[in-house]
Structures are given as C-alpha cells and as structure tokens.
C-alpha cells in the first residue's frame, strides 16, 4: 500500500509540470475496452490546463446523470437521451472507429475519472455523490455498448457467470416463470424458459436484485437470465469504486502539502452543487421559533410542512422525524439555542421538562455537532428521504409524495388548498414514481410559477427558492454574501454562457460551466 | 418479584445456572483466533448504567466479569478488528466491526394496531401466535432462499423473539448485504398513512410460500374468537377492509353487518365472496400477509455494529430467562410458562430437573451451531 501511495502521489506532482506533455504513442492496448472498471491509476503526465479541462468535462457528464435521475426517476427514454447528449458532447467513448480517436476518447475518460476521484474522495457526502453518478454513467454505457464490449469487460475483469444445467433449470422452472412474469410484464412459455440461459450468482453479488425482489432467490443464489446480469455487473463496478474511494481518501492526507493541487481539487468538488446542501453557520439565527408556523405555510416543502403539523398536533415526533425535521430547521438557520427552545416548547406540552432534558435535548445538540461524535450533520436531500427508511406506524418522517397513499395525499393537498386539477396532475406523477417532479409541481402551483420551471432536489433548496420568490430575492442575496465559497443549489441569474474552457480554474468559471450544463439539460 | 430481590437472585443465577461453557463455545465458532476476544459485549448494570466495549480473553475471564458485575442485561455486538476494550488505544479509523451474526428482532408492540387483546409490553395466549407465525415464515425463508442452516431462535424475555443467523456467510455479510436481506424479507411495511402495507406481487415465490404458511394462522389468530376476533372490532375492521381501496365495496359490507353479531370467521366468508365478485382475490392474500407476516424492525438487522440482547440473560421486569426456541416445536412454546429466575432458584427440588430441561433447550438451539 505504501508503494501504491507513492506512485499515485508522484503522478499528481507531475501534473504540475506546465506544458511538458510527452508525445505518447497511441497504443490502444493500454485501453483495451470502451468500458472500464478504472482499476489502475493512470501513469502519465498531464498539464494543469488539461487536468482542469478533463475535470470539467466529466463534471458535465456526471451532472447530467444526476439531473436525469431527478427528472426521470424510472429511467425511461428521456433519461437515456439526456445522459447520451451530455456524454456525446463531453465524454464520448466508442467501440469502433479510428484507432487514434478511440485512444483519445478512452484516455480522456480514464484520466477524468481519476481526477474527479481525487476531488471527490474527501468527505462522505462527496464520495456518495460521486459514486452514485459514476455508477449511473457506467450503467448507461453498459446498456448501450454492444455485447462484444461487455464480454470484453467481463473477460478482462475475470467475471465469469455460470449457466445452470438443464436439471436445475427444470426444478426451478415454475418459480423462474413466476418471477419472470412479474419483472418483465410479459409471460414466457416453459419451453422458452428451458431454452434460455439461466445464470446462478451468489446473492452477495446481486444485492440490488435481492433487495427489490427482481430475481428468484434460492439457496443463497439468485437465478437470472442474461438481461438481469446488468445490475450485477453494475453492482460489481459500484463495490470496487466504493472501496477505491475509501482507499484514496485515506491516502489523500499526503496531498495536503501540495499547495497547488488541493485548493483546486477542493474548488472542483465544491462547485457541484445539488449533491449536498451545506448548512451555513453564517445564517444561524436567521430564523427564530416564532417564524416557523408562518414559514411552514409559506415556504416549507410538503415533507416538512406535514411534520410541523404532526409536531404541532401531537407535541411529539419519533426519532426519524426529529432527525429529518431537526436538520432541515438547522439548515434554514435555526440556531442551536432556538432549536432547543422550539422543541422544548412543543414537547413539554405533553411531557415534563425533566423528561425532555433527559431524553431529547442530547439528540438536538447532537444534530448541531455538540455531542457524541461532534459531526456536523447535514440536512437530508430528497434522494435520501425518498430512498431512506420508509416511515412505519407512528412515524412522521419521509416524503409524502412517496410514503402517503393516494387518498391521504389528496386529502392533505386539498387541506393545503391545492386546486383539484393540479392535485390530479400530481397524483399522475406520483403513480409514475416521479416524486420529486410531483413536489416541483406543488412548488409551482403554490408559488404561482409556470409549469415545468422548478426542480426539487433538496428540501432546503426548496425552501431557499421559495424565500427568493416570497421576498423578492433579498434574503437570498444576504445568504450568499454571508458564506464563503457558498455552495447552493440555486442557479445563479448571472450565469454567463462561456463555452471555451477556462484557462484559470476560478470559482466563477466553473460555476458558469456548470450553469451552462444545467441549461443544456432543459 | 420485588425489585429488591432481583440483584441477589441474579447473582445466584450467574453463579449456578448461566451456561458459560456453551455460550463461550458458540461465540468462538470453533476457532482459536480472535473471534471471541474481539467480540463486543455491553453490560447494563444497576440503575441503567450502560457500559459498552467490554471484551474478554477467554471463558474464565468472561465468567469472572459476569459474576463480578452481575449485569441486569448483556448485549452482544460485533467482532471488531481489535479487542473492543482496547479500542481507545488504536486510531478510530482502525477500529471497526468485521463480522456479526445476522440478527432479526420481532417485537409485539409492532402488532398493536392489529391486536385487540393487549397492547404495549403485555402479551397473552391470544396474541403470542403472531410470534410463532413470524418465526415459521422467517425460518423457512432464511433456510430455503438464502441457504442458511444455523439459526438460533430466542425468546426475548418479554414480548418478542430474536433470531441469530450464525452461518459464516451470514456473519460475513456487509452492512449493505444485511440491508438487502432484511428488505427482501420485509414484505410488509408502511406508515399509518398507508392502507395496504404489502408491497410484493402475489405470485412472487416468497409471497406465495408465506401465504401458504400463514393462512392457518390468519384463521386461528386473527379471525377466531380464541384469537383477535378482528372483524368484530370496528377500528381494526375498517383498517382491514381498507386494503381493498374500494370504498363502495367496504361500505356495502359494513352496512350489511350492522347489528350482525356473527363471528369473524363468518364475516370473513362474506369478505371472500365480495372480493371474488369484485375481482380482487389477490387482496385476500395481501390482507393475510398484512395481518400475520413478520413485522421486522429492520434497523436492528441492518447495522453491523448494532447490539442485541444476549440469549440466556434474565429479563429484569418479567424475571424470565431468554431461552432458545426450537423452530420445530415453536407452536407449543409458551412464553408465559418460561421459567422465571425465582422459580429456577427457589424450587430447589425441581432445580436439577429444570436446569436439565433448560440445558436441553439450549442444546437444541446450539447444537446446530
Ligand atoms: S420531494 Fe423532497 S422536498 Fe419534496 S416533499 Fe419529497 S422530500 Fe420533501
Ligand atoms: Zn394478547
């Protein structure tokens, strides 16, 4: 490991060398396949300028993956189109064609991956974002490359899948057919099933399929047809990348001395925006407990508004809701002292002060990083809320669009005076599992915005967008000025449409590039 | 039992009855290396003093510590990279869990909305079969679907059951792997805001198998007058019919039943007829699962470093010992007949015999390891 670290470090040092790009022979055996698991760190020198350009290109592609997932969560053809477009523009890889072109494409792909890996391995949140988007990009490519590339990838990585023999297949046939008809909406005859290859894979390698019950699980294996190997290969990619990221982050401290690279890597990862919402201590105190009821009505997304309602009527919230709501309030600028006062005043309507102090105050201080591991917890994103643990009996957390049944959602929206026609639209979106789009629709109608203009990725982003509209933008300006290196999910109105790659890596340049990509996607 | 007696009783229990040797053998898994030494235990002492990161070098050390501290409760955690008691001596990043049994926790309080006999911590013979049904279904799924063989089922001492899956493959599962298995098994989940909490197509193999196992329990526990008699309780009945998400059908049934004092079994026959007429037969399966399928607290299963109450400790409130349950004879397991610590210790004449029984019970659970 020591050795590896040294090698990687030397590579990075080399990138500082300006304009000394070697002329390398374009040997395609270096990048034998259009698809890659990115296992070996690259061993070549690149100039700072190219370093930045590659980073920005890949950010475009990854950002498109994120946007696509938010807009089209069920991964339909619109989803594919959006990613394809960005990929073609910024980071194309093809399996056929001119040798030199293929070499250049693959090299760009390879290097840019490793550059962003450095930039995004620094914190848990960044790692998670990078891992999610890289996996999405890989899945996209895997599904659109021809079988030959996929086979090459598997052969290169020693991933052989074993097809079961006829006897096993026969024994499992009824259940294989049952699962098949659930997962594909189309029946298949017994004969067809018996003449199709069925692969046996240890369940540990197919956790997504297990979790979502999209395969037959028997005897510690999943049994899948060829199409279903895709999630398994994707899972293998994800597992490897996840391990490498953890490893790189441990190796990163040795970079700290490198005063040139680190700020650049930092600023790279800070520019991307919607993966996390930094709660800014600079704004603590901006909201007081007395403001909350009004703000809840005016500017809270549905998830937080319903939780506030629940708190107000029951004077209690269980752990999941205390975390989700508490961190949201912290994110909108409720100071620790105010948070304690706020929770105390509600909870003590139903319990003694002693009980509150004994059982709940710790939890609140903990959210603010004042207890326990002293971690500065960040508010939950929509993805985390929607994909996170679903509320069970008595819980008030979660996303109403996802976790309420249709009737209850309708009732709630009616109570919040959403017009019937819009409720109907929202219900349609929810039926298609477009929870964040449903939320965006709710935003638009409650803020008198035209349809299709809002995007919701984070409850705190929802809130800030709302305040901007309700207060005519004043408060938002204050926010920005207060925090240095401000990260925010809102699109700046001052975005320039610079197309050329910035020579100097400045915040503004990257910001503009990213805003640009956001516009590309519309 | 008066609280005052408990510490003395406990001391005697730990001195004379706790099955140290078997316990140690179980947690060593036939290995001479650090599996036992790096295992985390936590003790809950008198007055709720909770001490984590206990670990022991061998059987004698374990025995000595338990007898000296006389814990009200012992929890078992994960096996770590180093001895948990020394965790402060290594860097935080180098101290992490590497293996643990895959565990499941089923608690009767999660059944409150479908219980008419008791609520909260209370249990009786009318509601305990919910646990038996849960055990049967989960046991089968873990063995058939995941190929696990070494399952230890334990009465939690009060109102639920635990399952320890001890196969090496289960112990080595990552956090994500545990989550996937737990979610796979969680066919029923959802908040009060959801009428139908069953999220699995009726023809999925695990669902049809569960349905077959659970059908008799649905009749004997949910419908029968010796069980919950659920359709004669307005609130629970409304929730049950809500699964159809068809208000005209349920209104129709409700109005037909006004003043109807027939048994739940009879009313269920009406429901079945109405469902067939409305082409909603699959909802009958959903209702059965929603009312009998194990309600798992999957957070307990997901966490690699999550601790769970150890088998063989004594529940301080009930005084009952957390004894293993044999899945083969689970139907006849009676939690209210589980020996309490007093019974064990005061009925001295029976002691030898009871201890023997108790050990045999343990034998059944542990010999499979
Ligand atoms: S989409 Fe996001 S902001 Fe909207 S309700 Fe759901 S979790 Fe909240
Ligand atoms: Zn009962």
Note down, in words, how this protein is organized.
Chain A: Residues 472-497 have a biased composition (Low complexity). Chain A: GO terms for molecular function: 4 iron, 4 sulfur cluster binding; DNA binding; metal ion binding. Chain A: Its cofactor is [4Fe-4S] cluster. The complex is a heterodimer of chains A (522) and B (369). With 522 residues, chain A is mostly helical. Chain A has helices at residues 2-14, 48-71, 77-90, 99-120, 124-144, 147-156, 166-184, 190-195, 207-211, 229-251, 261-271, 292-299, 302-314, 319-332, 336-347, 353-359, 361-367, 382-387, 400-403, 406-415, 420-431, 435-446, 459-470, 474-482, 507-521, and strands spanning 162-163, 199-202, 216-218, 221-224. Among the domains of chain A are: 157-229, no CATH class; 289-471, no CATH class. Chain A is built from 25 helices and 4 strands. In chain A, strands 1-2-4-3 form a 4-stranded antiparallel β-sheet. Chain B folds into 2 domains: 5-186 and 296-349, Alpha-Beta Complex (DNA primase, PRIM domain); 205-291, no CATH class. Chain B is built from 14 helices and 9 strands. In chain B, strands 1, 2, 3, 4 and 8 form a 5-stranded antiparallel β-sheet that branches. In chain B, strands 5-7-6-9 form a 4-stranded antiparallel β-sheet, with helices on both faces. In chain B, β1 (39-45) and β2 form a beta hairpin. In chain B, α4 packs antiparallel against α7. Chain B is globular. Residues 359-369 of chain B have low confidence and may be disordered. The A-B interface holds A 175, 178-179, 181-182, 203-204, 207-208, 210-211, 213, 216-221, 250, 389-395, 398, 400, 403-405, 407-408 and B 93, 110, 112-113, 144-148, 169, 173-174, 176-177, 179-181, 183-184, 189-196, 200-201, 203-206, 208, 245, 298-299. Bound molecules: iron/sulfur cluster (SF4) and zinc ion. The site of zinc ion has 7 residues of chain B, from loops.
């Amino acid at each position: 490991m020591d050795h590896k670290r040294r090698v990687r470090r030397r590579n990075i040092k080399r990138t500082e060398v300006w304009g000394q790009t070697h002329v390398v022979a374009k040997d395609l055996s270096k990048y034998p396949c259009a698809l890659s698991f990115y296992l070996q760190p690259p061993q070549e020198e690149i100039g700072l300028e190219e370093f930045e350009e590659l980073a920005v290109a890949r950010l475009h592609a990854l950002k498109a993956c994120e946007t696509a997932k938010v807009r089209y969560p069920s991964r339909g053809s619109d989803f594919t189109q959006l990613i394809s477009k960005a990929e073609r523009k910024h980071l194309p890889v093809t399996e056929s064609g001119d040798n030199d072109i293929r070499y250049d494409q693959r090299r760009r792909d390879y290097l840019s991956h490793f550059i962003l890996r450095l930039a995004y391995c620094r914190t848990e949140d960044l790692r998670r974002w990078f891992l999610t988007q890289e996996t999405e990009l890989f899945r996209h490519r895997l599904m659109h490359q021809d079988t030959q590339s996929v086979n090459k990838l598997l052969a290169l990585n020693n991933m052989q899948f074993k097809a079961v023999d006829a006897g096993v297949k026969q024994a499992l046939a009824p259940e294989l057919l049952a699962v098949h008809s659930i997962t594909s909406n189309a029946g298949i005859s017994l004969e067809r099933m018996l003449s199709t290859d069925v692969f046996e894979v240890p369940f540990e390698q197919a956790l997504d399929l297990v979790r979502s019950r999209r395969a037959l699980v028997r005897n510690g294996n999943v049994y899948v047809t060829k199409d279903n190997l895709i999630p398994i290969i994707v899972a293998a990619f994800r597992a490897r990348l996840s391990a490498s990221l953890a490893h790189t982050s441990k190796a990163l401290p040795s970079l700290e001395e490198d005063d040139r690279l680190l700020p650049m890597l930092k600023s790279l990862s800070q520019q991307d925006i919607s993966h996390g919402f930094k709660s800014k201590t600079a704004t603590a105190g901006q909201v007081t407990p007395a403001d909350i009821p009004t703000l809840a009505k005016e500017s809270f997304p549905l998830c937080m508004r319903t939780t506030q309602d629940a708190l107000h009527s029951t004077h209690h919230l269980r752990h999941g809701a205390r975390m989700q709501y508490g961190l949201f309030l912290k994110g909108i600028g409720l100071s620790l002292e105010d948070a304690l006062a706020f929770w105390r005043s509600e909870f003590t309507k139903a319990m003694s002060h002693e009980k509150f102090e004994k059982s709940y105050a710790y939890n609140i201080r903990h959210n603010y990083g004042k207890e326990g591991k002293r971690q500065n917890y960040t508010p939950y994103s929509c993805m985390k809320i929607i994909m996170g643990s679903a509320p069970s009996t008595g819980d008030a957390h979660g996303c109403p669009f996802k976790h309420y049944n249709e009737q209850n959602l309708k009732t709630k929206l009616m109570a919040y005076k959403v017009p019937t026609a819009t409720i109907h639209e929202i219900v349609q979106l929810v039926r298609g599992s477009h929870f964040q789009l449903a939320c965006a629709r709710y935003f638009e109608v409650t803020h008198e915005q035209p349809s299709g203009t809002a995007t919701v990725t984070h409850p705190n982003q929802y809130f800030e967008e709302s305040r901007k509209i309700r207060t005519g933008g004043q408060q938002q300006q204050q926010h920005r000025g207060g925090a240095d290196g401000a990260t925010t999910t809102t699109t700046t109105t001052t975005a320039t449409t610079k197309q050329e790659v910035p020579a100097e890596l400045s915040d503004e340049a990257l910001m503009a590039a990213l805003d640009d990509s956001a516009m590309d996607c519309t | 039992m008066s609280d005052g007696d408990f510490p003395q009783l406990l001391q005697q229990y730990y001195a004379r009855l706790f099955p140290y040797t078997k316990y140690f053998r179980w947690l060593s898994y036939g290995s001479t290396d650090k599996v036992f030494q790096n295992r985390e235990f936590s003790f809950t002492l008198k007055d709720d003093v909770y001490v984590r990161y206990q670990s022991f070098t061998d059987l004698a050390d374990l025995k000595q510590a338990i007898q000296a501290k006389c814990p009200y409760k012992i929890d078992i955690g994960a096996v770590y990279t180093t001895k948990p008691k020394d965790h402060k001596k290594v860097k935080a990043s180098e101290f992490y869990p590497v293996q643990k049994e895959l565990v499941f926790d089923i608690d009767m309080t999660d059944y409150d909305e479908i219980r008419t006999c008791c609520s909260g911590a209370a249990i009786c013979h009318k509601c305990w079969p919910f646990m038996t049904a849960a055990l049967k279904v989960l046991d089968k799924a873990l063995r058939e679907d995941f190929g696990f063989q070494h399952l230890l089922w334990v009465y939690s001492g009060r109102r639920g059951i635990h399952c320890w899956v001890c196969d090496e493959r289960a112990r080595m599962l990552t956090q994500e792997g545990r989550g996937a298995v737990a979610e796979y098994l969680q066919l029923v989940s959802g908040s009060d805001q959801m009428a139908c909490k069953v999220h699995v197509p009726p023809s999925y193999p695990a669902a049809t198998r569960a349905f077959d196992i659970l059908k008799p329990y649905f009749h004997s526990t949910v419908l029968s007058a010796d069980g919950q008699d659920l359709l004669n309780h307005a609130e629970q009945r409304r929730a049950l019919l809500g699964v159809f998400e068809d208000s005209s059908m349920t209104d129709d049934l409700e109005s037909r039943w006004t003043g109807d004092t027939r048994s739940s079994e009879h009313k269920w026959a009406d429901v079945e007829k109405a469902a067939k007429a409305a082409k909603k037969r699959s909802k009958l399966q959903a209702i059965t699962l929603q009312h009998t399928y194990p309600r798992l607290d999957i957070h307990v299963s997901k966490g690699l470093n999550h601790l769970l109450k150890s088998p063989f400790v004594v529940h301080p409130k009930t005084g009952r010992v957390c004894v293993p349950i044999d899945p083969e004879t689970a139907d006849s397991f009676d939690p209210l007949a589980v020996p309490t610590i007093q019974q064990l210790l005061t009925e001295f004449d029976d002691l030898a015999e009871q201890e023997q029984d108790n050990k045999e019970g343990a034998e059944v659970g542990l010999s499979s390891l």
